[in-house]
Write a structure and sequence with these properties.
By secondary structure, this protein is of the alpha/beta class. The chain has 3 domains: 29-50 and 368-438 and 440-574, Roll (Luciferase, domain 3), CATH 2.30.38; 61-340, ANL, N-terminal domain (Rossmann fold, 3-Layer(aba) Sandwich); 581-714, ANL, C-terminal domain (GMP Synthetase, Chain A, domain 3, 2-Layer Sandwich), CATH 3.30.300. It is 36% helix and 23% strand. The chain has 22 helices and 31 strands. Helix 3 (110-126) crosses helix 4 (143-153), helix 3 crosses helix 8 (248-257) and helix 9 crosses helix 10 (322-333). The longest helix has 24 residues, at 2-25. It is globular, with a radius of gyration of 26 Å. Residues 99-535 form the AMP-dependent synthetase/ligase domain. GO terms for molecular function: ATP binding; long-chain fatty acid-CoA ligase activity. Belongs to the ATP-dependent AMP-binding enzyme family.
Length: 715
């Protein structure tokens, strides 16, 4: 009996000892004395003062790019898959879907890209572009986007980034707000750089149509420059007589024949005016200096372990989002290769991949990726669906292996370590890792909170740490970032080396820095990564940007956080997402949504609370594969997916899954939606209901589904 107790208690004691010692021995963030509004401030434990650059003698993005190209000239920089064919497939319901047959990656070296960048910069000068004229990029992510960006930087030209998924109103607002600007736009098939005499743009067929539709409001457009050599014919454009069209390669050729001396920027010059995705209204243009972006790029370089020229990065997120723009500048700065892909061709089973064709990740086999939580949630759900469909011994082995590794990651010595871990990796998780190429060693997650369930799933199944970050466009995506050895979930890490993080009291919401056991309050971010402000919006700039008596610039985020004992930050709320119900209870919409979207039946959702009612309701975009599989097992007949979503049994099943997740996360009863509406059509950026980073647009959804929301409260 005593031997048995020793066998149980000794490992338990050792586990507890190491867990406690780890927590006490490593301080990831330390208190720091700062100016401005009273609060509690934390800095990165490794950097007593904010980091501005990680490269000696480099103070702008243009200098960083030139430094990298000269140092890594013969190495691959930009890769693009060859398009072999486009085919249309007809689904059983009669809908037609385009499928792509893609080949291998074709690469440009650092030296070749630098040559193209210099030629493009000279070409802009030759066609009459002036320094004070801006260039707007309205395009999906691709190599030409990056080349155009760097070409503009070599002429000290400010680049305006606009999401390719913007609707007509937001697009018109963004373009009309910029004066003396060139724009860069792109579409599904062809990408065009539209050079305006007030605006210069790059676009494609889809974007070209958008421009034509609002051409009456864009009378300053003078020239379009196609990224591709095949320039589409468009009667509407020709009839307008407004625009002339040339190709990007022609501009490069003009630059090659008429080289112009570089006009490099200073660190305080505006590098980018980045329009937000407009989740809370019309997009705002955030003005970023070269110093702002370089501070974040430098910070992440010090955090990602061993980032070097042998790494391969898969680029598929919108370059109009600061997360992707910063990530590509980071990996280019250290000499890594960037292979371009798309969310629609990412894996072997992605929507646009022709059957039998490999997805981008399988071909590229990246070592580093950035992802938004929505993408990682889809990877998790896809793997779980396959495992459940397989059933039998395979499912039992997966569940056992997962449970053993989960126990280990949660700190138990009784979990799978050492040889057992290697065995499970070989027998079970090797096939899962092949989904993203099998070589991922580090994932960067940002843009929205990542659920603990998804984080653990990725840790175990992909065998890679996730650096979960927190930041905003206004801070160049920089604020906090979890270090590679921080395996905790539910937190967003410690301050990045360029940032100070401060919490200030928000008494109206009940969040105080004097709270126990952890100080809580509104998150305020200071440091060289805090941007200049909003373009042509001085009133809003003064509202959320402050400079203290010591000269430190601070941004007031509106997010609510709490500091853990080791100096790491946890996001707990958002001021705008808190609604007071009829009986006085407060509901945090974002917090509840993060809990309930873990349900396998949910693709997306919006919780709605009304101060004139005592309960919440929800609009739920249903997961078609999960619900159809459930209905099949239950013997429930339905004519189509929309019919299935209307059935009472379906709503009851989804509600039951919500109660399960709510119980696990200890939600209050009033936080759980009393009534739901299941929606069969997905929310896409093109629909205007979610941003390019897949964040929901509450006001747009409320307007689009006002009738459905009213009925939920009436019934």
């Amino acid at each position: 009996m005593s031997a048995y107790l020793v066998g149980v208690l000794v490992p338990l004691a050792v586990t507890l000892f190491f867990r406690n010692s780890k927590k006490s021995e490593k301080k990831r963030g330390l208190p720091v004395d700062v100016g401005g509004e009273p609060g509690i401030a934390i800095r990165n434990s490794r950097f007593p003062t904010p980091l501005e650059t990680a490269w000696e003698g480099v103070f702008t993005l243009a200098e960083l790019f030139e430094y990298a190209c000269k140092r890594h000239g013969d190495k691959y920089l930009l890769g693009t898959r060859r398009l072999i064919a486009r085919e249309n497939e007809v689904a059983p319901d009669g809908r037609t879907f385009e499928k792509l047959h893609l080949g291998e990656y074709e690469w440009l070296t650092y030296a070749k890209v630098f040559e193209k960048v210099c030629n493009f910069a000279s070409g802009l000068a030759h066609i009459g572009h002036r320094r004070e004229e801006r260039v707007a990029i309205f395009a999906d992510t691709r190599a030409e986007w990056f080349i155009a960006l760097q070409g503009c930087f070599r002429r000290n030209v400010t680049v305006v980034t606009i999401y390719a998924s913007l609707g007509e109103d937001a697009l018109c607002h963004s373009l009309n707000e910029i004066i003396n600007m060139y724009s860069i736009l792109e579409s599904t098939n062809v990408n065009i750089l539209a050079l305006y005499r007030g605006y210069n743009c790059i676009c494609g067929n889809k974007e070209l149509k958008k421009l034509v539709d609002i051409s009456g409001q864009l009378d300053t457009v003078k020239r379009l420059i196609c990224m591709d050599d095949e320039i589409p014919s468009s009667a509407s454009v020709e009839q307008s007589g407004q625009w002339t069209i040339t190709s990007l390669s022609n501009v490069e050729k003009l630059g090659q024949e008429n080289p112009a001396k570089a006009d490099l920027p200073q660190s305080a010059d505006i590098a980018v005016i980045m329009y937000t995705s407009g989740s809370t209204g019309l997009p705002k243009g955030v003005m970023m200096t070269h110093a702002n972006v370089l501070a974040v790029v430098s910070s992440v370089r010090t955090i990602v372990p061993g980032l070097e020229s042998n790494d391969v990065y898969l680029a598929y997120l919108p370059l109009a989002h600061i997360l992707e723009l910063a990530a590509e500048n980071i990996v280019a700065g250290v000499g890594s290769a960037i292979g371009y892909g798309s969310p629609l061709t990412l894996t072997d089973t992605s929507n646009k991949i022709k059957r039998g064709t490999k997805g981008d990740a399988s071909v590229l086999r990246p070592t580093v990726m950035a992802a938004v939580p929505a993408i990682l949630d889809r990877v998790r759900d896809g793997v779980r669906k396959k495992v459940d469909a397989t059933g039998g011994l395979s499912k039992k082995l997966f569940d056992l292996a997962y449970a053993r590794r989960l126990s280990a990651l949660n700190g138990s010595w009784f979990g799978a370590w050492g040889l057992e871990m290697l065995l499970w990796n070989f027998l079970v998780f090797r096939k899962v890792r092949a989904v993203l190429g099998g070589r991922i060693r580090f994932l960067l997650s940002g843009g929205a909170p990542l659920s603990g369930d998804t984080q653990r799933f990725i840790n175990i199944c992909l065998g890679a740490p996730i650096g979960q970050g927190y930041g905003l466009t206004e801070t160049c995506a920089g604020a906090t970032f979890s270090e590679f050895d921080d395996t905790s979930v539910g937190r967003v890490g410690n301050p990045v080396p360029s940032s100070f993080i401060k919490l200030i009291d928000w008494p109206e919401g009940g969040y105080l820095t004097s709270d126990s056991p952890m100080p809580r309050g509104e998150i305020v971010i200071g440091g060289p990564n805090v941007t200049v402000g909003y373009f042509k919006n001085e009133e809003k700039t003064k509202e959320v940007y402050k400079v203290d008596e010591r000269g430190m610039r601070w941004f007031y985020t509106g997010d609510i956080g709490q500091f853990h004992a080791d100096g790491c930050l946890e996001i707990v709320d958002r001021k705008k997402d808190i609604v007071k119900l009829q009986h006085g209870e407060y509901v945090s919409l974002g917090k509840v949504e993060a809990v309930l979207t873990v349900s396998p039946y949910v693709d997306n959702m919006m919780l709605h609370a009304d101060p004139f009612h005592s309960y919440c309701v929800a609009l739920v975009v249903a997961s078609q594969p999960a619900l159809e599989e459930w209905a099949s097992k239950q013997g429930i007949a339905f004519s189509d997916f929309a019919d299935l979503c209307e059935k009472k049994e379906t709503m009851k099943e989804v509600q039951a899954s919500f109660l399960k997740e709510a119980k696990k996360s200890r939600l209050e009863k009033f936080e759980i939606p009393a009534k739901i509406k299941l929606l069969s059509n997905p929310w896409t950026p093109e629909s205007g209901l979610v941003t390019a980073a897949l964040k929901i647009k509450r006001e747009a959804i409320r307007k689009a589904f006002s009738e459905e929301l009213s009925k939920l409260y009436e019934s």
